[in-house]
Amino acid sequence: MKLSARNIFKGKVKRIVPGMVNSEITIELPSGTEITSIITKTSAENLDLKEGKEIYAVIKASNVLLGINE
To answer: What integer pLDDT is reported at residue 62 of this predicted model?
Structure first.
């Protein structure tokens, strides 16, 4: 698999919160950092996601919003 995205993180599925249309997937990276993604329920099923399964988080964004708390 080759991707144009530069931010690819390998981790394991820590938690799955299924919904009627979308599922919330939390991935734990080896450092302990967590990444959460919302994907369609169909995609989660097609990927056969289960807790503990090795997975890649691929992040490609043309816009990144930043904020500060004053």
So the answer is: 74
